[in-house]
């Protein structure tokens, strides 16, 4: 166990994301999965650097922590709260002196005087995290990894297992606690159906100071950050194929478990390690059962399937649509459909993929709002929609024909015609086969049935 000084990191939460202007604000608003939701994407986090000195608890208290190794594992001895109170009560706040008695095992406390003074969250319910402070007297907060509409994620060091972890701390409140419990339920369901190395590992969950917390394995950077770091130059098609295969394996497992992810986007696909192409799918907070859909308004706008915008029934094929959008963006460095709102998003989709099938127009609960009597998108704010004016084949002129065909199958407007994860794994581009006859590409499995 270690005692370490801390520093407070804060975040600037602007009331209006669009006020920041430019593409950043547009993308930030597109990442919301709720109407008019204001989230913390693109907000600035700052923290004071940690002091260079470190007080090692296991060096000052005999027998508290040992570095013995048995079969490659570090043996960690913990203190009781009574012993900490007896020998180090000066390092605890008055609140901590009472709180610590609720824990049987103490692995870490902070020796900084800069701590919470009873108020653990801001006015919006976000946990106020201090660099170097403790979570559950076991985890040491290192730095902030990110934030969103549901809470924050912090990089921590687990002093019990001696491993780095990522902890999602949900905002305070019953609704957010239910969201956390829901995500845990989804991840447990996926795990029961067998191990899958393309889906993030959940390690533990608990409540701390009124906040629901989920402990995950620590991964590397996400796909969007990768693009940003590389000046949005796009990704090598061979590397992209490896990522696509892994995403499909993960989606096949998720969908076979009767679930829909509902929020696939570059930010939710993380590399396992730096300079490696292995990835994992994260963030199942919006996931739902195929037989029990909780929400009608889901997915981040750039990756939102048309049936969601049209307010139709949906299934796991919405994840395949998002996959196609992600792969296009990772190849070109730019999102395929960039709409400032839902109507413009539909316009961008029609420009590339053509008019919606009449059946989809009839089934849309927003038909009178979005379409005229002929089933064409209505003209709003003098926006003229030119159906099919920007085909994938013209946008990706010099691209591999197999890749274009694969994207086309992922981006079929009619979800019944859209490829599923299992079929997609048999596509020639995914398998690395040369395309010979484009007419035969749609039939990858003799047992497949298309509508």
From TrEMBL:
Stretches assigned to the Protein kinase domain: 139-430
EC number: 2.7.12.1
Ligand binding (ATP): 168
InterPro entries listed in its UniProt record: DYRK, Kinase-like_dom_sf, Prot_kinase_dom, Protein_kinase_ATP_BS, Ser/Thr_kinase_AS, Ser_Thr_dual-spec_kinase
Gene Ontology terms for molecular function: ATP binding; protein serine/threonine kinase activity; protein serine/threonine/tyrosine kinase activity
Domain of life: Eukaryota
Classification via SUPFAM superfamilies: Protein kinase-like (PK-like) (SSF56112)
Reactions that this protein is recorded to catalyse: L-seryl-[protein] + ATP = O-phospho-L-seryl-[protein] + ADP + H(+); L-tyrosyl-[protein] + ATP = O-phospho-L-tyrosyl-[protein] + ADP + H(+); L-threonyl-[protein] + ATP = O-phospho-L-threonyl-[protein] + ADP + H(+)
UniProt KW Transcription regulation keyword: no
Pfam families xref list: Pkinase
UniProtKB keywords: ATP-binding, Kinase, Nucleotide-binding, Serine/threonine-protein kinase, Transferase
Gene Ontology terms: cellular component: cytoplasm; cytoskeleton
Gene3D superfamilies in alphabetical order: DYRK, Phosphorylase Kinase, domain 1, Transferase(Phosphotransferase) domain 1
Record-stated family: Belongs to the protein kinase superfamily. CMGC Ser/Thr protein kinase family. MNB/DYRK subfamily.
Name recorded for this polypeptide: dual-specificity kinase
Organism of this sequence: Stentor coeruleus
């Amino acid at each position: 166990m270690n005692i370490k000084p801390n520093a407070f990191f804060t975040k600037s939460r602007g009331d209006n994301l669009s006020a920041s202007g430019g593409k950043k604000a547009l993308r930030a608003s597109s990442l919301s999965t709720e109407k008019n939701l204001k989230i913390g994407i693109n907000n600035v986090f700052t923290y004071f650097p940690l002091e260079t000195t470190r007080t090692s608890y296991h060096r000052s208290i005999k027998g508290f922590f040992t570095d013995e190794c048995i079969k490659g594992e570090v043996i960690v001895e913990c203190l009781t709260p009574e012993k900490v109170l007896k020998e180090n009560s000066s390092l605890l706040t008055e609140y901590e002196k009472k709180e610590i008695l609720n824990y049987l095992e103490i692995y870490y406390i902070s020796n900084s005087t800069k701590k919470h003074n009873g108020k653990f969250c801001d006015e919006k319910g976000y946990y106020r995290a201090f660099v170097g402070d403790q979570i559950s007297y076991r985890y040491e907060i290192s730095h902030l990894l990110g934030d969103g509409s549901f809470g924050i994620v912090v990089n921590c060091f687990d002093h019990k297992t001696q491993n780095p972890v990522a902890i999602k701390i949900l905002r305070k409140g019953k609704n957010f606690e239910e969201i956390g419990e829901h995500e845990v339920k989804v991840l447990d369901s996926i795990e029961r159906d067998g191990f899958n190395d393309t889906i993030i590992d959940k390690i533990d969950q608990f409540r701390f100071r009124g906040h629901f917390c989920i402990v995950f394995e620590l991964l590397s950077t996400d796909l969007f950050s990768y693009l940003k770091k590389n000046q949005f130059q796009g990704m090598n098609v061979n590397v992209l194929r490896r990522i696509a295969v892994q995403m499909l394996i993960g989606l096949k497992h998720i969908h076979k478990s009767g679930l829909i992810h509902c929020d696939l986007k570059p930010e939710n696909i993380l590399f396992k390690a730096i300079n490696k192409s292995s990835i994992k799918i994260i963030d199942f907070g919006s996931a739902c059962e195929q037989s029990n859909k909780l929400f009608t308004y889901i997915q981040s706008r750039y990756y939102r399937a048309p049936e969601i915008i049209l307010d139709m029934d949906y299934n796991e094929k919405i994840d395949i649509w998002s996959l196609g959008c992600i792969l296009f963006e990772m190849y070109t460095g730019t999102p395929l459909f960039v709409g400032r709102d839902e109507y413009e998003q539909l316009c961008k989709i029609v420009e590339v993929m053509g008019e919606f099938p009449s059946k989809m127009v009839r089934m849309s609960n927003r038909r009178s709002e979005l379409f005229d009597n002929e089933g064409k998108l209505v003209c709003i704010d003098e926006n003229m929609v030119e159906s099919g004016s920007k085909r994938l084949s013209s946008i990706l002129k010099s691209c591999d024909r197999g890749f274009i065909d694969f994207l086309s199958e992922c981006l079929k407007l009619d979800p019944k015609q859209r490829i599923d994860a299992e079929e997609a794994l048999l596509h020639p581009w995914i398998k690395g086969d040369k395309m010979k006859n484009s007419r035969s590409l749609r039939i990858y499995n003799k047992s497949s049935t298309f509508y």
